[in-house]
Amino acid sequence: MKKLFIIANWKSNKTIEETEEWLHDFSDGFNKANIKSEDKKTIIAPPFTSLEHARYCSRNLKLSLEFAAQDVSTFNEGAYTGEVSAKQIKELADYVIVGHSERRQNLGEDEDVVHKKLEQVFKYELIPILCVSNFDQVQSSKFKVQSYSSKFKVNNRVLIAYEPLFAIGSGKPDTPESADEMGKKIKETLGETPVLYGGSVTSENVASFTRMPHIDGVLVGGASLDPLEFLEIIKNA
Ligand code: PGA
Question: Is the residue at 194 inside a domain?
């Protein structure tokens, strides 16, 4: 059985209190389902403000969860007001989402910014979840990913999330066949790196993606805000 990555991207949602509620509501079912992290790795990406508390609650509730930051600064530590550096994230998370299309669109992040962020992520040996919405973005990051992987001797420690723009938050997912075709192309380009699909994933459609040969998991936005729906997604994946 291939290993799956199931990632919840909460985006700019949930206060600390709501984070705690989510984890409590999620914990019973998740612990009972006895999901082996070797088979299905569950990663939560709360906003920065909730990251530490989410980890604390997860430990207390004995949940086998891992954590991701939703973004990272292009800069090292220093005089960069408002930025959160990779070094700071390193204490809180193992993964970092880089290049999400909402940041590319709403905050004008271009390939140069994405590459600088990847650089920081690799420098601190975090694992990027690099979001791409088309093949050009894969090719553009190829050199960075490969050169940093060899420089820091980390092999295939990059997760790629293919998220076509039309599918994000629209309730209209891509077809599993088309997502799989992109997954195949990405692996041909970057090597045997895990490729996830993202865009309107629900508990109803998750299996249609995860059963495809070149898809290794899902990045879930809207449907991950409800703990019970997210639990069903993990179970059905
Ligand atoms: P969605 O978002 O599941 O709400 O479509 C996915 C994402 O943007 O990561």
Answer: yes
Query: What's the gap in Å between 174 CA and the centre of ligand 1?
Result: 12
In a domain, 6, yes or no: no
174 lines ligand 1 (CB under 6 A): no
Query: 199 alpha carbon to ligand 1 midpoint, in Å?
Result: 5
Does 70 sit in the ligand 1 pocket, CB within 6 Å? no
pLDDT value, residue 149:
67
Q: Is the pTM of this model over 0.90?
A: yes
Is residue 183 situated within a structural domain? yes
According to the model, what pLDDT value does residue 132 have? 97
224 CB less than 6 Å from ligand 1?
Answer: no
Domain count, the chain: 1
State the residue range of the domain holding 199.
159-213
Q: Is the beta carbon of 183 within 6 A of some atom in ligand 1?
A: no
CA distance 65 to 44: 7
Q: Would you please indicate which residues are annotated as catalytic (active-site) residues?
A: 100, 163
Q: For residue range 179-220, what is the model confidence (pLDDT) as tens digits?
A: 999 999 999 998 889 999 999 999 999 999 999 999 999 999
Cα→Cα distances 116→98, 111, 151, Å: 10, 9, 15
Single-letter residue type at 48? F
Extract the residue ranges of the chain whose pLDDT is less than 50: none
Which positions ≥6 away from 175 have C-beta within 8 Å?
A: none
